[in-house]
Amino acid sequence: MLRLLYRYHAPTTGVVKIDGVDIWSVPARKAAQTVAAVLQEQPTDFALTVREIVTLGRTPHRKGFGGSAGAQDVAIVQDALDQMGLDTFTNRQLGTLSGGERQRVMVARALAQQPRLLILDEPTNHLDIRHQLEVLALIRDLPLTIVTSLHDLNMAASVCDDVLMLQAGVPLRFGPPQDVFTAGPVSEAFNVTARQERLAPSNTNHLTFHL
């Protein structure tokens, strides 16, 4: 489903519209000004610095190929670096960073595109618990629409405004997490016995799963 949104797979039926525009009807460069994606697997052998990688996010907004970054590009890149807390990493090469730091770089690159829609494909994949929490805390308050895939239901409930729960690829329920992630539908979707428990001291609902 995410691949339809970031133009990796074309839909066989229907259309994908963002702000009323079919994203498959516009040139790739124009679409990249609207939608940015951060994928699961990221290369680690870039011989580029963090700033250079984030600057690549400005490519859809430049005329022709290559070209140097203008003053506006530099300001936008710096803002993306600041939002992701990367200002002290700007001269580091990507391969020298931790998994969580690399993920923040890729999100910053996507932010430099200035998209209206940001796609994050399992942004916490392969990250330890601390880095998962750091990445989600940084993206949660970004001022744009984000569509992401998360397999940790409790984590999704803590950061998402609305969730879509699938069963074998078919939409099962959509809405606020507190309405979707109830014991019955979760048990049905994942073939487990799900229970809602109240956690202290946070006083929040938490799903547990049992065979």
N-C termini distance? 29 Å
Rg, alpha carbons: 19 Å
The CATH topology label of the largest domain is: Rossmann fold
CATH class of the largest domain: Alpha Beta
Number of helices: 9
Class by alpha and beta content: alpha/beta
Question: How would you describe the overall organization of this protein?
Answer:
- By secondary structure, the chain is of the alpha/beta class.
- The chain has 2 domains: 2-149, 3-Layer(aba) Sandwich (Rossmann fold), CATH 3.40.50; 164-211, no CATH class.
- The protein has 9 helices and 9 strands.
- The chain has helices spanning 2-5, 28-32, 50-55, 71-83, 99-112, 129-140, 153-159, 177-180, 183-190; strands spanning 17-18, 21-22, 35-38, 117-121, 145-149, 163-167, 170-175, 193-199, 204-210.
- Strands 3-4-5 form a 3-stranded parallel β-sheet, covered by helices on one side. It has a two-stranded antiparallel sheet with strand order 1-2.
- Helix 6 (129-140) links the parallel strand 4 (117-121) and strand 5 (145-149).
- Helix 4 runs antiparallel to helix 5 and helix 5 (99-112) packs parallel to helix 6.
- The longest helix is centred in the middle third of the chain and has 14 residues, at 99-112.
- The radius of gyration is 19 Å and the shape is globular.
